Amino acid sequence: MAEGLMSSIHLGSTIVDALVSTGVRDVVLAPGSRSAALALAVDRAARSGALRLHVRVDERVASFTALGLAKAAERPVAVITTSGTAVANLAPAAMEARASGVPLVFVTADRPAHFVGTGASQTADQLGALGPAGLGVVRLSSESGDAAAWAAGVHRAVVLAAGHRTRRPGPVQLNAEFAAPMVSPLPEPARWPLAVTPSRPGPSHRLEEPLRTVVLAGDAPPEVGAEARRVAEAARAPLFAEPSSNARGGDCAIAGYRRLLATLGGDIERVVVFGHPTLSRPVTALMSRADVELVVVTSTADWPDPGHRAVVVADVVELPAQDEAWLARWRNADSAAVGGGFSQRHVARSVLASLDGGHDLVLGSSSIIRAADSIAATDDAPRVFANRGVAGIDGTIATATGIALADGRPSTVLIGDLTAQHDLGALVRPTLEPWPSLRVVVADDDGGSIFHTLEQGAPDYADSFERVFGTPQGLDLVAVATAMGWRAVRVADQEALDGALASDADFIVAAVPRPAP
């Protein structure tokens, strides 16, 4: 591009070329007018094979799809949106990406700055729209700078999102102001290379004192989960692994650890934490105890420490060998019994049993992931993902779609009925877009069963419970999914569920009872 040449189409082309040059291989586009130059440039890049383009009409669905892609691929993914309220719809996925360290670049098209505050159509002050969730904001304008300056801004955004230098990956806003005219003939593609050396982990930290130790693995990518399991098994320490830790399995894993903390937890002297534990109050209480040495293993600049008790934060740790009797106490007390009736635990057990190491499983937040947490895992288990950064129920189906698109592995998402309702837009399968091998399983108890396990589930609040906590919706999810083209079935017992899991049904609603408040 000629020096000093400025136009919207040149800015859009440079942004996309620079994304490709920095290694971005997936872009999710939510179409609009102000982002037209970006749309044309990213379509050309996709046609040439430089990247994969995914188009979603809903910005919220688009951003969670990108979250799933980035989670599974473990590299930055870009999202392109138009201006105005479209940008606000990115906030939920940005919050999750920040809390779980997922690299996303939100390319938000904007009107020129001089239109802000004038009442111009679809114009708002959208700089910093991600709020505290954003790691930073990079500003570009078709009325200022040149191609080299624009490419350098893209470089900064991608490097910041990836956490290459900060070791703190997350969401970044790349806000691009496009002046009219928005479209014109595309310039020739350009390369904007940049080599960035990542910040390296430090040396291992050796823990010498032979304290009674447990390894606690929270939400984590597969390589972190594998390291947590390796450390536990090398030291013969009990392993408390949440479902999305990717550490469950082996003879050190204790399936019923949450229940056993009430009886055996008092004897724990050291906790070694991997990933981001979020599932239960007993675990949070364990991490907050003053009489426990808390060691956090992380390769990033952040670490979980809700009780402010961490005494060691290290990239790698080595544990002293544990007394085999310590592990034996936990193993002997452990039980993975599922109980009678047909419950969320039965659904979770059947889904886990139907998947092997060649599959991915995405778990919704709320009750269902806790049901899965009580089921003993096998060594040939699927990769497990969950949005546990802020543990919301937003965008779970869209996230699972992105994960399945990332590498083409068959995927199952296991969620509750309210989580499904929060992401009905993600059930739309665009006719011009590739669709992955994705199955949705819904444990439908017609409401918010998790609240039964919290204070508001006490008898004192029974008169108010159903309306303001249980919130039954009475929605026929099978009819909704069928209308959207899914092969949907409803089951109400174990035999029917196992049959549906073995069939070609790709949307399974398992009706399970919800206890009365």
TrEMBL record:
Cofactor binding summary note: Binds 1 thiamine pyrophosphate per subunit.
The record lists the organism as Tessaracoccus lubricantis
Broad EC category: transferase
Record's keyword terms, sorted:
Magnesium, Manganese, Menaquinone biosynthesis, Metal-binding, Thiamine pyrophosphate, Transferase
Which gene is this protein's source? menD
Domain annotation Thiamine pyrophosphate enzyme N-terminal TPP-binding: ranges: 11-127
Which reaction is this enzyme known to catalyze?
isochorismate + 2-oxoglutarate + H(+) = 5-enolpyruvoyl-6-hydroxy-2-succinyl-cyclohex-3-ene-1-carboxylate + CO2
EC assignment: the record states: 2.2.1.9
Superkingdom of origin organism: Bacteria
What name does the UniProt record give this protein? 2-succinyl-5-enolpyruvyl-6-hydroxy-3-cyclohexene-1-carboxylate synthase
What Pfam families does its record include?
Answer: TPP_enzyme_C, TPP_enzyme_N
Key word Manganese present? yes
Q: Please give the subunit comment from the record.
A: Homodimer.
The reply on keyword DNA-binding is: no
- Protein family: Belongs to the TPP enzyme family. MenD subfamily.
